[in-house]
């Protein structure tokens, strides 16, 4: 089919998808330059504005970068680290249980506490109403020797739980909700792993393209079945993978 006969929107998608496939198979190298806009416009039988939109699509997904006065280049991909889960290791300062594969992460920037309405996607997890208030702390984690943040961690404590801890709203750091055990049942913890697309502010904080998905950890603390704290940890999926070892008996069962 003649590309020039395609509808404008489809032209953008067609051009972007064709270039994406070429980039991923290494047609332009790991940091090579793409053809110029006029060359791409001629190739796809499209207007230069269509080509610009296709290139913008690729930029948002972290595949290319623009260099002023030079052109568009393949974006070098960051080295990916595997975080190995280990239930026998105490929770470390990354907010969940993993072998330490890098230098210790510390808070490069922290803010809070602040009171806001509960985020819509956490209403069900927190077990509160849409108009309920939560107390929030945010920390951007990384290695001090580098300028690359590695994790964005946000802790949510329901307002009614905050009221049980008199000094909770005055702390600069995330509170130790285990103090709730002093006047009630023991706390239990679980971790749920998922993924989602970043908000622009999250992508900016992690210095990650808006089109790169984030690995999402929800560390959930409960007391007598009720949620007392949720910490959401976000990491770039192009920088991290999650790994865990299978026990021999699990491997044997999976082969049956």
What's the structural blueprint in terms of helices and strands?
Layout: H1 8-24, H2 37-44, H3 48-60, E1 64-67, E2 71-74, E3 81-84, E4 106-117, H4 123-126, E5 133-142, E6 149-158, H5 159-162, E7 187-196, H6 200-206, E8 214-223, E9 226-236, E10 240-243, H7 248-254
Parallel strand pairs: 3-10
Antiparallel strand pairs: 1-2, 4-5, 5-6, 6-9, 7-8, 8-9
Helix pairs in contact: 1-3, 2-3
What integer is the average pLDDT?
A: 83
Give a quick account of the main beta sheet: strands, pairing sense, barrel closure: 6 strands, antiparallel
CATH topology of the largest domain: Chorismate lyase
Total of helices: 7
Architecture overview:
By secondary structure, the protein is α+β, with helices and mostly antiparallel strands. The protein has two domains: 72 residues, Winged helix-like DNA-binding domain superfamily/Winged helix DNA-binding domain (Arc Repressor Mutant, subunit A); 163 residues, 3-Layer(aba) Sandwich (Chorismate lyase). Helices cover 23% and strands 31% of the residues. The strands form three sheets. The protein has a six-stranded antiparallel beta sheet. Strands 1-2 form a two-stranded antiparallel ribbon. Strands 3-10 form a two-stranded parallel ribbon. A hairpin with a 2-residue loop joins strand 8 and strand 9. Helix 1 crosses helix 3 and helix 2 packs across helix 3.
């Amino acid at each position: 089919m003649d590309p020039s006969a395609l509808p404008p929107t489809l032209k953008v998608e067609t051009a972007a998808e064709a270039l994406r496939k070429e980039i991923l198979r290494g047609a332009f190298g790991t940091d090579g330059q793409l053809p110029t806009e006029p060359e791409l416009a001629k190739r796809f039988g499209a207007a230069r504005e269509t080509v610009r939109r296709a290139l913008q699509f690729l930029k948002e997904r972290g595949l290319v970068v623009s260099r002023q006065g030079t052109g568009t280049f393949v974006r070098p991909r960051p080295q990916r680290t595997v975080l190995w889960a280990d239930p026998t290791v105490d929770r470390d300062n990354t907010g969940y249980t993993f072998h330490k594969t890098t230098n210790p992460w510390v808070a490069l920037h922290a803010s809070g506490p602040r009171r806001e309405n509960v985020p819509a996607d956490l209403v069900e997890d927190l077990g509160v109403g849409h108009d309920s208030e939560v107390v929030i702390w945010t920390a951007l984690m990384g290695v001090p020797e580098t300028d690359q943040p590695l994790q964005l961690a946000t802790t949510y404590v329901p307002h009614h739980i905050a009221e049980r801890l008199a000094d909770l709203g005055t702390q600069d750091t995330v509170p130790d909700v285990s103090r709730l055990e002093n006047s009630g049942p023991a706390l239990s913890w679980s971790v749920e792993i998922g993924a989602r697309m970043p908000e622009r502010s999250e992508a900016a904080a992690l210095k990650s393209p808006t089109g790169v998905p984030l690995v999402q950890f929800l560390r959930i603390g409960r007391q007598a079945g009720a949620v007392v704290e949720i910490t959401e940890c976000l990491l770039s999926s192009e920088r991290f993978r999650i790994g865990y070892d299978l026990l021999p008996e699990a491997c044997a069962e999976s082969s049956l």
